[in-house]
Amino acid sequence: MKIYLFTASLLLSGIGLHAQKFKFGIKAALGRTELETVFADRPDLNFESKGRLGMRVSGFAEYFVTGKWALQAEIAPSLLGGKFIYDEDGKEMINKIRLQTLNFPMMLKFYPVQKLNIHAGADFGFLIEAEGGVSRNVDHGLFLAGDLFQDLFSGKTDLKDHIRTFSVNPFVGVEYNLNNGLFADARYTFGVYDMAKSSKGQGFESLKNSHLLIGIGYKFKKK
Questions:
Q1: Helical ranges in the chain per DSSP H
Q2: How far apart are CA 10 and CA 205, in angstroms?
Q3: Under DSSP, is residue 8 helix (H, G, I), strand (E, B) or coil?
Q4: According to CATH, what is the number of the domain 22-219?
Q5: Is the dihedral of CA 48, 81, 73, 173 positive or negative?
Q6: Rounded distance between C-alpha atoms, residue 104 and residue 216, angstroms
Q7: Which of 28, 93, 168, 200 is the most exposed place for a label (fewest CB within 10 A)?
Q8: 59 vs 146: CA distance, rounded Å
Q9: CA-to-CA dists, residue 210 to 28, 46, 163, 169, 188, angstroms
Q10: Among 122, 91, 21, which residue's Cα sits nearest to residue 63?
């Protein structure tokens, strides 16, 4: 009987110690998202790539391998994309592309000091929706207000048939933690993966998405 009790106590202690290595949290982020592309059906036009508003919310689990090294996995619904300015018949036009994705960033984090970490990893993305809209370029004031105005008043075209469902891109970032569970981070994702499907004269010859997102979040306290 004593052996069973001793074994059970060891197992429970192991589970408790293992749980102490985990942290769970949530985060919301805003920033600039940009596309690099070549349009297959408009090679005659000079498209200038511009950034647009991007956003992401995520839930995550962080596992401490040692006191300074940790692994983190996230699930993150995201709004990404980009916009392009071009001249057509003397009119400056804007072509906006909005990508709704479900992302799974996986990363390795290093804590040189207790509250600060630098991290790097891969962002695995799955396309849910892809829309494009063309309108005349008019200044509507603030960056966010202009994006919302053009989204509301430009016609939409479904682009999902021209874009791959899966993508993966590398990223780097930095995070600072406060004492009350709050933290802030900044992360840049390099658009190296070509999301364009075989064009056959339509859609995109190439399509790559980079983005810089700055977020705030909360890590739940252990009970």
A1: 2-20, 143-153
A2: 59
A3: helix
A4: 2.40.160.20
A5: positive
A6: 18
A7: 200
A8: 29
A9: 18, 20, 15, 9, 8
A10: 21
Distance, CA of 166 to CA of 69 (rounded, Å): 29
- Taking only the tens of pLDDT, the chain with its 223 residues reads 544 444 444 444 444 445 568 999 999 999 999 998 877 666 666 778 888 999 999 999 999 999 999 999 999 999 999 998 888 777 788 888 999 999 999 999 999 999 999 999 999 999 999 999 887 765 544 444 445 445 444 568 899 999 999 999 999 999 999 989 999 999 999 999 999 987 666 678 889 999 999 999 999 987 6
Q: Burial code of 18-32, b = ≥16 C-beta within 10 A, e = fewer?
A: eeeeebebebebebb
β strands within 65-203, DSSP E: 69-88, 91-113, 116-136, 157-158, 166-177, 182-189
Answer for the pair 167, 209: CB distance below 8 angstroms, yes or no.
Answer: yes
DSSP codes joined into one string, 25-59: EEEEEEEEEEEEEEETT-TTS-PEEE-EEEEEEEE
Distance CA 34, CA 141 (A): 20
